[in-house]
């Protein structure tokens, strides 16, 4: 059985996600699109889904919190994006991912 603390470290979760196919690293561009760090692909809010997320606290300082998102795009591209959590968060990443979350909440679930 794997140690819970070891499982919950940022590095170990990133490594596990990479093994599961989340190989791209993303950022949010100035024009409010999700972009691969290689810069060859960009995605609108409608083309992105948050599959999972993980929160982490710093070992020595609770202010060192971060959040890692596992992302899947409509073309099958999968990857991760991370952000600080709380007052140190990148507002562009927060705004983009909030739009993605809100898009998911607006789906008409009565059709299923």
Describe the structure.
The radius of gyration is 15 Å and the shape is globular. The protein has three helices and six strands, in the order ααββββββα. The protein is an alpha+beta fold and 112 residues long. A hairpin with a 4-residue loop joins β5 and β6. Strands 3-2-1-6-5-4 form a six-stranded mixed β-sheet, sandwiched between helices.
Oligomer: single chain
Class derived from helix and strand content: alpha+beta
Low-confidence stretches: 1-5
| Global morphology | globular
The side-by-side strand order for the widest beta sheet comes to 3-2-1-6-5-4
- Compute the average pLDDT: 85
User: What is the count of β-strands?
Assistant: 6
Distance between the termini: 38 Å
Amount of beta strand: 25-35%
Protein name: Phosphoribosylpyrophosphate synthetase
Using brief descriptors, characterize the structure shown.
alpha+beta; 6 strands; Phosphoribosylpyrophosphate synthetase; 3 helices; 112 residues; 26% helix; single chain
